[in-house]
Amino acid sequence: MPLKPNHKALNDPLVKRFETYLLAERNASLNTREGYLSDIAQFVAFMWKAAEPPYRWRDVADSDARRFVADLTKGGALATTVKRKLASLRTFFRHLQKGGEMQDNPFSMLRGPKKAKTVPRTLSPSEVNEFLAQPLKDFRAKTLDRFAYLRDVAIFEFLYSTGCRISEAISVKWGMIGWRDGRVIVTGKGSKDRLVILGSKALDALGRLRAEMERRNPASVDATADVFLSDRREKISARFVERHMKRYLAEAGLPTDLSPHKLRHSFATHLLDAGADLRSVQEMLGHASLSTTQVYTHVSIARLQDAYASAHPRA
Q1: Residue 212 falls within a domain, yes or no?
Q2: Global pTM?
């Protein structure tokens, strides 16, 4: 799927070559490619202002890279944002090095500010239940038709049951679902496949959605057909799911600043709270490093500390 240029920097021949590399050799997703190219475009604007491509990449020095970081920080960019942009530019200049366009990588020694450890915001099990019950309430109130109700229940049950990223969930086809054992093979970051588990409630929600879609159009549940469709019967987008989630959160009286990714956080936290093995949760989340999964243990520890502080006589 081609990217739509949103900045003249994308017309630079070396940037175009890098885009081809991301797609052909790294098999990067559309979102990943857009992220890289957006960061490069921002650096171009910082370095060359309104100049037209091609750009003199060989002229970029270590001092320019440091000034760029300082400019980001001065502008209030979060540590995570700065680190991501540095990673994008480091990869881009490394690609130029390999192609003989650069001798040195001006971003090779920059790592950006340290990221402050934060505890992910999650929904409690009771809040998840309230949230997941909201589509049915809307259907009974006749503010939602049957298809939309069944689809929304199915997508949110799927996200919470599997801990999938939203991009993984919306790409699921009917033929990928193991109805007997509740297993699904999804494709995650880096085009890596992994096994996720569907609980009984998620399987039931998917089964009811499938029956409704088959009744309307048998071809819509073919093995290669997308499971989750919009009201126009097109593949849903991440933004579509996020809008619907915020609607149900608001109606249920829950915080509306939560995204579908928070269901992934909640999935991990609730498993660990119930005693699940950390490495098993790592596998289900598709994390390459155990340290990435360990952030969810901080949530559990925080809850233990709260419980201790409120209950222990000498806390």
Answers
A1: yes
A2: 0.61
